[in-house]
Fold each of these.
Amino acid sequence: MGTLELIREASKKQVLFTLHVHRQIDARNITIKEIFEALESPELVEDYPNDPRGHSCLILGFTKQGKPLHMVCAPRAGGLMVITVYQPSLLEWKLNYKSRRMA
């Protein structure tokens, strides 16, 4: 099973948010509703299969209003763990929000 399939299957079970995510949504004007909207059609940006804490990845999703969100997620047996969330900046990302700008 590919990474996106793992993300989709895990999110059907349960979506869990780290304390860091709760801090991010307060600080960055992101809502839980927007996170769920963005999870409806995730696109894989970066995959981290060898992360020492377990397989994780960076995904891109869009809210119903078209707002792009990046989320670092980790599919687990019990559900999807959302580790962090932020709105990608065009200063760091190209217009597709999937390619980093070179420094």
Amino acid sequence: MENTSTLIYALDDERHIRELLAYNLEAEGFNVETFETAEEFWFAMRTISPDLILLDIMLNDANGMDICKKIRGTEASRKIPVIMLTAKNEEMDRILGLEMGADDYVTKPFSIRELITRVKVQLRKAEAEQEKELTEIKIGDLDIYIDKHEVLYKGHPIELTPKEFDLLVILAKNAGKPLTREYIISNIWGYDYIGEETRTIDVHVRQIRKQLEDTNEEIIKTIRGIGYCIKGND
């Protein structure tokens, strides 16, 4: 099962399609937000960027091709995988969708199992590409150099233990997204702690905050009942 920190946006003006996508993708462990209109979609995009977008071509209030083009033309969203959904089955529509920047194309009616497989393939490709490219992360006054295992805050080096460094990196890679303690544990330690032992994360976060003088949680925020989050760049 995929991790619930993976966020998928689905824009489709057909309610039963939105419900079908949300139900089945959430059953796979994804976090899914659905939108009926382009206006709702763009409002959400200004708030937080998803990991993947399912985009209907024929919408009541917009053209999916134009939306895809805008996604690809915006620096903050240009690398988000886009899978286009449409009732059309003509070769020219598929070509146009791909030329506008879509990563994949699924024709309605579609097999939900096939769609989920395509979603996972695109997410794996995006993750591999990100890992290949990402050697430096900058969030506000915080600079993280992954290859060097070096952290600067306001230009000054910060001393972190290996586990504290890994924790800061995983939060920074997912800037803007709340991560659960369980997710952090499994991705850093490689196995799951049970119950109260997940509080070891809290200890590491306190130490990082101390180094960053983050007493007001301006950098690492506590998300009550969930875990932690680093706010992304505005």
Amino acid sequence: MLTKNATQTKQLGARLAKRLRGGEILALYGELGAGKTTLVQGLARGLGIKKWVTSPTFILLNVFKISHRGRIKYFIHVDAYRLKQASEALEIGLSDYLGRPDTVVVIEWAEKLEEVLKNYKVKKIKLKTLSAAKRVLIL
């Protein structure tokens, strides 16, 4: 899927969110600036989250409670960029959320957590930069 600007990337994320039923783990792959956080912002908006979503680079994990989306009660946003070892994700409590049927987990820089994620069903999303504004998302 091709997006031509950040707005379209967010819109795509919002459309993808409508397909989520809970229990999903979305693993985002892409270089710095590829649009991972922008996609996450769209996913959050599509799930009805009104708070501004920023990448949790320094705190590593953000938990958003969803009270109006039926089965999905939590949206977990992880940024693994600063992690040196996959085990660090377990230390911050990521395993408490993985695979829960009432939770959607989205992980930026998922390649750093492949050891942790190998025991779960994961939907991989690759983002590639085509130009300053254009991105292609491979689902």
Amino acid sequence: MIPIRNTPQGAVFKVLVQPRSSSNMIAGFHGEALKIKLTAPPVDNAANRMCLKFLAKSLGVSKSLLEIIAGHHSRHKQILLRFNDDGPSPENFKILVERIKSLAGS
């Protein structure tokens, strides 16, 4: 399972991004991170933008609720899912993680 760290701003989880893939997909888990394959190259922030867009679509949340808080120039990233009036509650986040796990085939 992906470790989720709750913070006052929201929940933080790790992803491993594989850029320049043939398709955008959740490819399972790599250690304690969700592995995501993206078609975007790792230049001009393209892979980071696509990572957030793809995660938002996969989770069914607004892209504005997601932020890369660490690993901007690395394949290993930490993602913040903000909790606010428009975003998921901490309890609903666990449901979103289960959705990711089902997408990853676990």
